[in-house]
Amino acid sequence: MRAVTEPATPVGAATALAVERLRVTLGPRTGGHDLVRGVSLTVHRHRTVALVGESGSGKTLTGLALLGLTPPGTSVAAGRLQIGGEELASCSDADLARFRGRRIAMVFQNPMVAMNPVLTIGQQFLQVLRHNLALSRPAARARARDLLGAVGVADAPRRLDQYPFEMSGGMLQRIMLALALSAEPDVLVADEPTTALDTTLQAQVMALLAERQAQLGMGVLLVSHDLGLVAGMADEVDVMYAGRIVERAPTADLFSAPAHPYTQALLRTVRDIASPTTTVLSAIPGAPPQLATLPAGCSFAPRCPLAAPECTVALPELRAVAAGHEVACVRVGQ
Amino acid sequence: MTASPVTAAPVAVRATLPRVRAGVRRLSWRELVGGGGLVAFVLAAVLAGVVSPWSPDALAIGSRLQGPSTAHLLGTDQLGRDLLSRILYGLRPSLESGFAAIALAAVVGVLLGLPSGYFGSVIDSIVTRILDLLVAWPAVFLALAVVLLLGTGELQVIIAIGLAEVPVFSRLVRSIALLAARSDHVVAAKAAGASAPRIMVRHVLPFVVAPLVVQFAIAAPQALVAEASLNYLGLGTHPPAPSLGAMVSEGQAFLAYAAGPIVFPIAVIVVLVVCLTLLADGLQDRLDPHRGAERRRP
């Protein structure tokens, strides 16, 4: 899979997505608490950046915020947001509305519920294509057939007249991908795109995603907790904990030399297929912190085996420990 | 495609008939009785000009307050007018106003409830407060207020009843829109670039239709009774135009001499309401997934 995703343009070329100090706040802007606490990331064209972390770390919320789709009761702010080389004035719903579906698209976790159950696949394609690309009805239908063909859906004309419940999850996720890529966006946010699928389908859908990425050149932000998937797919991995990125590294470096204690602990929780089945799986002691009552300093300190007094003084910032490898931990290198 | 137009028609009829028969067999007894009754009443009202033995306004001073006879199947009223003919014609304003009022309530209810549930926040607060205000006001006073402002007449009755039913429809639509607006496929549609009005119409409204049909059927008998009541109070049709409610109030003074002028219109209202209620019940069983599955089984 890596071979297909290898960049056609060198790193540092066209930026597909750049966001700085992204903040998602629950409740009032002052007095509410932050669920995403100043996330900055960049995705280049043809590249895949994976956002990993446990449930509640804010990775999905980060993805949703980039499309202005955060749930009601939350507000989003960012120092800077750039999509497809174009700066956005703010990350308000109104500003993002123009980009959604055209410049930045999203694939959701569960294709069975992310399609409208009362419309046929064709109707849903037609709506999106006619609205986003201003195609005529026959042109949109022809385009929908091509798009379905491109994601390996056989017998596209018949599929277009079917309803979502008439199809399998794997088929629907292919269709979702085709729909998301219909306007050839600069950025694709893939939120756990294969979690609802079984293992063989996972591999197929990810291969398809990589293939389409090679053809269209979009940058992919892959939100996942599946480290195996990430290892095979991503160029760079950003590890999130309690609403912040705590470590960022090229995929190979992250798996071979994880620097942050949280990343190290996270990697230890993955079962090694070669290890004897009697091995007890390691778990990270303690529970993720309550975002309403975060401890001072590093959020991971209460669970961290390396915690020292200086960890609870100030929130550690990301700093480089190797080329392209950044980590937010005061203990690293000590 | 290949069949010639000449042979196409009989083939279509032959194909349709068994399907209709199979469709009728699938109906519950509530739907059959209620729907059949409603169809009969609507036909009677529409064909009143054809099937009525007399003109509804034909006076016959010599034969006032008569009981049923072969000449006057249901007898005559205090002015010697044929009761059957008046009831047939009187069905027209009842059915018209009743259904027009609910249609009005449904349309306004969707227009208010859909954005209210979808957007929430300020829009929702404003709409909900206005509706609370409408509900706090007793329906009869609401009707009186409409009549005071706009005068009496069929249109005013429609507006009055419609206004009283708007909160029910709006709240129903709002509650469904509230859930639908947070569903995954709506978020996905938004992610695909759909605008808010488009999402409301294409992705939320379809989920409102089935409950709306049920609510329409539930509100229909209420609206009919309300229409008859307003006409009974003299706020609806102008005499001598017949209406069921007005017939009851006119016949009241002569109750000591003849029961027919008051009993027959009331009986018609009751049967019509029972039919509509049965139909509503049947539709609810069919369309509301939350209602007793055990009842649906034969």
Topology, please?
The complex is a heterodimer of chains A (334) and B (298).
Chain A: H1 2-5, E1 15-26, E2 33-44, E3 48-52, H2 59-66, E4 74-77, E5 80-83, E6 86-88, H3 93-97, E7 104-107, H4 111-114, H5 121-133, H6 137-150, H7 156-160, H8 169-180, E8 187-191, H9 199-216, E9 219-224, H10 227-233, E10 236-241, E11 244-250, H11 251-256, H12 261-268, E12 319-322, E13 325-327
Parallel strand pairs in A: 3-9, 3-10, 7-8, 8-9
Antiparallel strand pairs in A: 1-2, 1-4, 1-5, 5-6, 10-11, 11-13, 12-13
Helix pairs in contact in A: 5-6, 6-8, 8-9
Chain B: H1 5-26, H2 29-46, H3 48-51, H4 83-119, H5 121-136, H6 139-150, H7 154-181, H8 184-191, H9 196-232, H10 244-252, H11 260-287, H12 293-296
Helix pairs in contact in B: 2-4, 2-11, 4-5, 4-7, 4-9, 5-7, 6-7, 7-9, 8-9, 9-10, 9-11, 10-11
Task: Describe this structure as you would to a colleague.
The complex is a heterodimer of chains A (334) and B (298). Chain A has 334 residues and is an alpha/beta fold. In chain A, 31% of the residues lie in helices and 22% in strands. In chain A, helix 5 (121-133) packs across helix 6 (137-150), helix 6 (137-150) crosses helix 8 and helix 8 packs parallel to helix 9 (199-216). Chain B has helices at 5-26, 29-46, 48-51, 83-119, 121-136, 139-150, 154-181, 184-191, 196-232, 244-252, 260-287, 293-296. In chain B, helix 4 (83-119) runs parallel beside helix 7 (154-181) and helix 9 packs antiparallel against helix 11. The longest helix of chain B is centred in the middle third of the chain and has 37 residues, at 83-119. Chain B is globular.
